[in-house]
Amino acid sequence: MTESAERTGPDPAATVTVTEPYGTVTEPYGTVTELYGTFAELYGGEPHGVWAAPGRVNLIGEYTDFNDGFVMPLALPHTARAAVAPRTDGVLRLHSSDVPGGVVSLRVEELAPHSGHGWAAYPAGVVWALREAGHPVTGADIALTSTVPTGAGLSSSAALETVTALALNDLFGLGLSGPELAVIGRRAENDFVGVPCGIMDQMASACCTEGHALHLDTRDLTLRQVPFDLAAQGLTLLVVDTRVKHALGDGAYAERRAGCEEGARLLGIPTLRDLPYDGLDAALATLADAGADESVIRYVRHVVGDNRRVEQVIALLDAGDVRAAGPVLDEGHRSLRDDLRVSCPELDLAVASAGEAGALGARMTGGGFGGSAIVLVEAAEADAVAEAVTKAFAAAGHAAPGIFAAIPSAGARRLS
Dihedral of CA 91/96/99/100: which sign? Predict the structure, then answer.
């Protein structure tokens, strides 16, 4: 759009595909229009545009990204959206329609790591990371809203970071690529917020394309868009949100990262990426002989195994045999449950009850300790499997899960 067109407001007839249980529906969508109105009410003017960045589910490859390994996420239709206007006076104003409270006002030159700010630390951290990288970001007014469930392991924080980075990249003419924006988002989360995550979530949000899964090498950020048209094969990938909130900043994630790094150190390799699967048994014996903690041995076994599972799934997708990936998902969940120990009773129940109802495969996705599971299922059986999982949760006394179909969707983009 031209500069003058940007300021005239969005098309009120804009539509977007949103998820409903086991399918999608396209309907008139007022959120872009509402964001313009919210922005005007908050800041007394119009934004220069509205941007969106999605959450993600990870098909396979968990806790591998900070080990320089392989991952395979896909973007969801759920997005964080931001209406933004630049400022030149060093003021950063942030508001989220999803969080109680008013506008958070900060000065960009005073932004400092680990300084709090709650939810606002994620977009504020992006501004800090851009400035630390030498980019001339002089402030902004930002109004945010999101349909990515928080605490569900679907990367709501990465969506906030990515949408902020993309908007500022456009408005300040920074010329950064999708992977470069992802690196900025990761630095915001690692160094400003204090969560030692890898690069997968930000890369998925910034770089995924509709109808594809993203095969990412997290060592050099080379990527490949892998066609992933489940509907054409009569399949559905369900997401089961257990409603158990996770918080990766509580130390459990960091402990596992430190354990992986200790395993690599004891083995004399830069990262666990450098340990081939056919050398795993010998490496585990070496770790045991060196007196490594048994948790380190378990973490190494999981990471090396999950790197191999990514390669297995890629080969199956390339061969057009998606159904055969189901047992690989099951194996991945067992490893996350037993070796990495990041599952929880609700996730285990979702996976087990889906399998008993005829799913092809299932596993927890994301950082764990709650959040979501994914279930690969014949499309004709999706309703029955979802009902079985819901009944199992009720019988166990758990809150009803949220269940929807994961539709491989577009990455970050400008909406208006």
Answer: positive
| Euclidean distance between CA atoms 186 and 203, whole angstroms | 9
- Identify whether the C-beta of residue 195 lies closer than 8 Å to the C-beta of residue 248: yes
What residues are annotated to the active site?
201
Mean pLDDT, rounded, of the chain: 91
Residue 271 token pair: 């990262």
Tens of pLDDT, residue by residue over 362-391, are: 999 988 889 999 999 999 999 999 999 999
Q: How far is CA 60 from CA 216, 335, 336, 343, in A?
A: 11, 12, 11, 15
Which residues does 268 contact at the CB level (< 8 Å), separation at least 6?
Answer: none
SS3 content of the chain, % helix, strand, coil (to 5): 45, 20, 30
Which is it for strands 91-96 and 140-146: parallel, antiparallel or unpaired? parallel
Instruction: Tell me whether residue 150 is exposed, middle or buried, using C-beta atoms within 10 angstroms of its C-beta: 0 to 12, 13 to 18, 19 or more.
Output: middle
Q: How far apart are the first and last CA of the chain?
A: 8
Question: DSSP assignment, residue 400?
Answer: P
φ, ψ dihedrals at 13, nearest 5°: -95, 10
